[in-house]
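Working notes for the structural subgroup meeting. M.R. asked for a predicted model of this chain before we commit to crystallization trials. I am recording the input and output together here so anyone reviewing the notebook later can reproduce the run.

Input as submitted:
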Amino acid sequence: MTSSPETIGPEPPECPVCLQPYNSSDTIPRVLACGHSSCEVCLAQLPRPPSLSSAVIRCPVCTQLVKFSDPTTLPKNIDLLRYSPSSPKPHHTKPLIKSPPRRRFPPETFSPELYAAWKDWVLPSGAVLIDIQVGFGRIRIDLGLSMIAKCRLVDDQKVGLVEIGRFDLGEVYLFEYSYVSKVMSVLGRMNDDQRTELGTLLGVSLRQPRVCGVLGLWLDVESGLLYLVTERKNDGVLSLGDLRDWFDQENQGWMPFLSMVGVELCEAFVGLQSEGIVCGCLGVSCLCFDEFGHVYIDLGEVLLTGRKIYQCVLEDLDGKRRIEGSELIALVMDLLNKDVFISPEMLFELMHREGIEMQRNGVNSKVDYSSDVWLFACVLLRLITGKKFAEGMRNYWMAVLGAEREGVSDCKILYLQWVERMNATLEALVGSEYPSLQEVLTKCLDLDPANRPLIPDGWEIIRGSNAYRCCSHVSILNRVSIKDNAIQCLVLGELCNISNDLSKESTISGLNREEDNHEAAATQVTEMKVGTVVKGLSAGKLHSKDLQGHLDCVTSLCIGGGFLFSASFDKTINVWSLQDFTHVHTFRGHEQKVMAVVFVDQEKPLCISADNGGGIFCWEVVPPLGQEPLKKWHEEKDWRYSGIHALAISESGCLYTGSGDRLIKAWSLRDYTLLCSMEGHKSVVSTLASCNGVLYSGSWDGTVRLWCLHDHSPLVVFGEGMPGRMSSVLSLHADQNTVIAAHENGCIKIWANDELKSSTQVHQGAVFALSKEDKWVFTGGWDRSVKIQEISGEGVEMDIREVGSVACESVITALLYEQGMLFVGYASKLIKVYHCGS
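Returned structure, recorded in token form:
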């Protein structure tokens, strides 16, 4: 039954947690100290992190920390009850608590989704050590220098490196991207197909036992090249191409070993086919052994082999649009002499991609699994026949490609002659007791791919031969697992066809590191009309302006009333215009080093400064700026005293000082009287921050304490009782639900919703200054660099990563990010303003 128009009115007030209307029996509204109300049941059931005491709770509306013991002792909100319906409604025993949506600060250097998907594959910058050697550890087509590397993560094991991208060093000016950001930047510039193919290779290496593992992604910071790092089972010392020369033909152990190699190659190819992957080409360097003699396929070497084949084809073509069969035969024979195999259909596809016409002599087929069957047969024949294999394949390729004077029928005759010779050669080398092995190998090289057997057929024949009686047990291959669609050929894929410039620079320019890329980049700066440092960082274009005027170390920075205020050990406070960064005025009067400065926006805007002698000065910020302070006074001193180290202003207009006597003092700015002293820290109170009715204090005792600004009582202690040696807190930032503390040991810690979410070593040395804007965290300190971190994720997924850094000439002692600009104070008495644009 619908309500009549007379009964329709405003919706009754409801609890912000369970969303049930208030009433006088079940959902009684109780008023918290912050002024917000919630129902009695929800207040009792709100979750509390272990760091909060039983006498403190966060308001579910404003998230402010307030005193709390028993909800029944809180006053009822009579006004809300007046507007509540008389009949109670069912109450949910489990309250629904919604978190506010997270805002994004554009632009992104790269998407959080990209970082989350790839961060676990990034190897540390010091994990790989490159050695330069000629003709070692790479395929044997000698087109330039080759590189091998040692991976320190796996006890100096040699690894393979495959170039998959480049970070453009020319984009860097003042701001230096972090190592991880450079890797993500390269991945971000890849297209979707390239990233998909890369992800496929990484996944295959984990799932397939006969494929060499992929260790991850590594960036050579000197050249800017991003590599796919693959493990080398035999450290590049032993190759299949050498085995036939090492074994004596009369040795009874040769055939069992050959059969084991054949069976395990079948398993490797079937494993790749089950993933929908076709190699397309293969070199003996793509195959390697582990310490137990088992065979593996190195997909990284497959990609490098494909790239070398591309280079050979392009060099031999030299701009031609048509190529004759004899020219192609010469090219193929050169590859075979270097133990590199490519199937006919793959060669035709490469020529077609380059727009080259050629004679096919009736051979026409797309690249599919039969192409890898062809490669499998070539590897086994190479092992059986040794170095004579290449010459024995000449007639085969003449049948495939032909010569100018030969027709299709002549090519078929050549092919039949090749089959007869190959059978005779195999019978002489293998023996007449293995006719099935001879037959399957010649069928695998059939001119028509449709007539070639499947890899599992070859596996069954080889495994069933007497030659394999000494080999260990292997699992039965599953034909059903081979995919019939979505075939991905590595040689025809995106990673193999990454620009020719990248391939050339990786072997020549990438090894010549004498050029100073940073100096070259400094001449390529483009002016931008964007007003934030973060946008400048994301574009790699960052500018700076020097503010000179102090005679000693800059200790503190603040902004207000259109001015920048800077405090210094030179006992002065300089005032700078935010319009053109010119020096406007100097406040003088302190007799000791000025340690902190804050701005108070009241009826009379004030700049308040404090020194290490306990002096507190209030300066009126009303043009024209005067020379005398509006008010000055001194804190009381005792034997523990070492001056004022920090200042903070509350929303109510109270001034708070953190001192060397371990106390926090509250002062009234109406009559400049001391309101109270807060005691709890065990050492110097070094930093203060105020937010949402809570005062946050950091100390040399390594803890961060929270104080209620309503009655100045203690609320929570962060860092107390944590394992490990306590490190002094030197700077902190607090906002809605997040507290960030910078420590003397170079670490920054992040608490969110009263729980420690992250403890990260950011600097090599003390972190003297910290500033935050949305998800961006700026830190600086003893190591003379400003680090920019980005906070990503929420809750248990919260993470912090370094975006980049700005190298500085002196120790950073003060930081402030405001109005899209980063202000940096140095121990060398200089102030720099980093910004984007002119």
